[in-house]
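> forwarded from #structure-qc
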């Protein structure tokens, strides 16, 4: 999904546009703080997706720059897997809760709505 500068030898992957879009999604989604490992992955994308990081990018050699671009795909995959797991856990927790007319798991024999859902 990155642009490629084919006039350079070797070709150069340009990730900034994609990363800016990703970080816009992070901002719009108002992501909460992430575990440290995931913050490290997010930084791989932030490096190319936040203007305040451009001075850091300008200090890199072309090889170092392209290595940081190579880190973006595994970063995006790791972040995606994390959010899928969060979503799955949330849905599982909701589905484990009895319905209002189900028998309450407390053992009373009454409907959940009448005993533990008040």
């Amino acid at each position: 999904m990155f642009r490629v500068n084919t006039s350079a030898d070797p070709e150069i992957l340009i990730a900034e546009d994609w990363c800016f879009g990703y970080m816009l999604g992070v901002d719009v989604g108002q992501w909460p703080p992430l575990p440290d490992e995931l913050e490290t992955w997010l930084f791989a994308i932030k490096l190319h997706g936040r203007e305040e990081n451009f001075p850091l990018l300008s200090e890199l050699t072309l090889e170092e720059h392209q290595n940081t671009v190579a880190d973006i795909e595994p970063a995006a995959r790791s972040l995606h897997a994390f959010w899928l797991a969060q979503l799955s856990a949330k849905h599982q927790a909701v589905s484990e809760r009895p319905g209002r007319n189900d028998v309450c798991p407390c053992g009373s024999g009454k409907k959940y709505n009448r005993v533990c859902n008040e």
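QC bot note: The two ends are 51 Å apart (CA to CA). Residues 3-115 form one domain.
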